[in-house]
Amino acid sequence: PLEERPLPELYSLWRLAGGDAETELRKQGCLRAKPPICTLPCIVLLEGEELGQKKDAVFFYDDTVVLLPTEQLCQRLKGMDPSLYYPLIETGQNVPPSPNSSNDLSNTAALPVIIREKDIEYQLQRVILYNRLLEAYPYQKQRIIHEAKLDIPPLYRALIWSALLDVQGDLLREYEAIDKETPTPTDRQIEVDIPRCHQYDELLSSPSAHAKFKRLLKAWVISHPHYVYWQGLDSLCAPFLHLHFNDEASAYACLSTFISRYLYDFFLQDNSQVIKEYLAVFSHLVAFHDPELTNHLDSIGFLPELYSIPWFLTMYTHVFPLHKIFHLWDTLLLGRDSFPLCVGVAILQQLRTDLLSFGFNECILLFSDMPEIDIQRCVQDSIRIFCSTPQSSTFRAHARPGSQPQDPLGMSPVALEELKAELCPRISAHDLLGVLEMSRRDSSKLNLLVVDVRPPDEYQRGTIPGALNIPPGSGEPGQWGEPLQSALQGGRMVVVAGSQKEHNTAVSAANGLVRSGQARVCLLHGGVEALRTAGLLE
User: Fold this and answer.
1) What are residue 244's phi and psi, to 5 degrees?
2) Neighbouring-strand partners of residue 522
3) Where is the Rab-GAP TBC domain (predicted)?
4) Mind listing the domains of the chain with CATH numbers?
């Protein structure tokens, strides 16, 4: 069955089996080392013309055919069940092998992704499956998404990312229609940035890559006249160019779609409001999951503006090498536009021990050169944070239209000044009702405490089911009495509810809880009135 596989698949598997094309070419005499001093030209004119050195014959076309040995590859795969070469894609999942089969790769699937990418038997199964699914795209898009949650094989990462971004159409015609040659005011900045972009990578540091970089970035700037070129766009382009190196049109389409989905309006001429709101939501998210860290960083004046803007503006491509970006984006492309915020929280949690012991200057030095981050742990932590955060808590007024649910009990835009005055995120009435309904169905899942901070008379006229009343003037959270102190224990999510007209009372109570170190604190958006209009108070 190997003979039926596409040549790129065979070559990829051959390399995993230990094959090295350069070694084979050297054995055949096709590659010959030459002292670097002998490759220098005798004369170089100011115009760049080189004289006095004959062109090395190694650069001439050579039609020699070199047969790569496949014995080792065949030996590694000879025990594979032939049925694995023909996976069923119409069923919910592949037919599992028998328990005694040597092809049971379930144990391999539990290993770290870096190890899985080096396992030839596992990769064979994955590339065959993805090949079938990609041939059936877009009909099998949901199955591709399902499989991508497990992992994405490097061989088909470019095509899978395109599928996840829903990139379709006559990409080449659209790309060629863009004028990429006429000089523009941004050309100079682009030319300055490109040589500094991921220059440790042999492919992206090549002259050919630099030319492609320039065309891609110019194409994006020209085709999006309402945006401008910001430094960092080159880093954002790098993963797509690396994957689609011989297909600029696809790289451009992926870049454009990615920015539209995850960085909507980040590249406006004046993006200050977009960035400030994003950072405010990020601060709330950090406080929701780790108030101790928030309190420490606030006390030393180390604010997100000082370290996280390059993270979000480049979706971490400016701070992580490409091999880590590939693994991070494999998951990021499966999530909503709020997932990058969760990645930021996960990074802080990995560095938590150092950050809690550092002062302002040490924190600045720490982030001036990003320390080593376990990217798989970061991804897993990001997923956990994303799943344990109410969707409405990451609401942004400047998000892409249609990317956030519209609901009468949902979120509405909040003034930036209000967001900055609040230390914790807001939760919509819709999300709160969802949590209450879950607890009603299964009391063992009751992990919520609602604190109603209105005066007792208003509380008596109707409140959220199960809410405890802490009227104004009750002091700091530490003075709220033993019953409530006990209720705050156990990692519950705490929702502070007040009246819409006295919202500052709720803000003060919620901020006090955060400052006291209480995790998972939220403010009820719209106050208790949001639920009264729906007739949901008791």
Assistant:
1) -110, 45
2) 495
3) 151-336
4) 171-257 (1.10.8), 271-389 (1.10.472.80), 416-534 (3.40.250.10)
Give the three-class secondary structure for 348.
Answer: helix
Dmax (CA) for the chain in angstroms is: 96
SS3 352: helix
What is the helix (H) or strand (E) element at residue 44, kind and residue range? strand 43-44
pLDDT band at 530 (very low <50, low <70, confident <90, very high): confident
Alpha-carbon gap, residue 486 to 65, rounded angstroms:
77
- Is residue 493 within a helix (H) or strand (E), and if so which, with residue range? strand 493-497
Nearest to 157 by CA among 243, 248, 89, 254: 243
Q: Is 535 left (phi over 0), alpha (psi -120 to 50) or beta?
A: left
Helix residue spans in 392-516 (DSSP H):
416-421, 429-441, 456-460, 482-487, 503-515
pLDDT score recorded for residue 32? 74
Separation of alpha carbons 224 and 179, rounded Å? 12
Residue 516: which residues within 8 A CB-CB, separation 6 or more? 476, 477, 478
Q: Count CB atoms within 10 A of the CB of residue 351.
A: 17
Indicate the pLDDT class of residue 86, thresholds 50, 70 and 90: confident
